[in-house]
Sequence to fold (248 residues):
Amino acid sequence: MRTIYRNSPVPRYHQLKEILREKVSTEEWKPGDLIPSERELSETYNISRMTARQAITDLVNEGLFYREQGRGTFVADNRITQQLLQLTGFTEDIQARGQRPSTIVLSAAMHPADAIAAQRLRIEPGQMVFRLRRLRLADEEPLAIEESLLNFKGCEALAEEDFENHSLYQLLETQYGIPLMEAQQEIEAGLAGQAESETLRIPVGSPVLLTRRTTYTDRNRPVEYARSVYCGAKYTFFTHLKRDRLFS
Ligand code: GLP
Fold:
């Protein structure tokens, strides 16, 4: 059994999260299984209940587990959860679930921006931007088609990048010095058309989630406008709501 290292610089709740994630990824715990209680986990790993609670709460927020009032915490089904709290990319979302992300590039070249993309990227319609169209997969299963339009000085250099083996967000931040700080995202219901159903390998008319995201740099400049089509049956968008004013 993996243990929690007391002298490690990695916080204990974080170590516990990794252990619990591994139980799910190795299928020792399967979707629908009841996981041990906070008390059991704290006894097994010799940690406080608070630490156990923090790890479980994080994994509930990430969508790996779900709680049922009075019954306990269970392993969620295989939907991919995209948090609507933090700005993350596809690679990060899939890796956080212990799955293997992969990408098939459908096209990658300079392309004139249409009116909507131009408005979101604050440029003139027709200006050339880098257009990246990708099929995104998790454990070899197609999950989404993403079209990203990128605009920054020197964006044409992206044509040389290997997007089948590198994350766009990681490249932007590490190779291009473009920190991604914020995004606005819209989500809509839709139905798969012919082309989407072939690429995503789902029947025509299957439910899909359509998202549009504008991603901003630290200087509040829009750098990416992305339109994505996610398989509706395989995706959950998660958001945590807080109430700051009560009816009085
Ligand atoms: C998400 C967003 C896209 C973004 C992508 C980056 O899926 N919807 O707008 O381009 O993440 O993912 P990665 O860094 O894996 O290329």
Q: What stands out?
A: The longest strand covers residues 101-112.
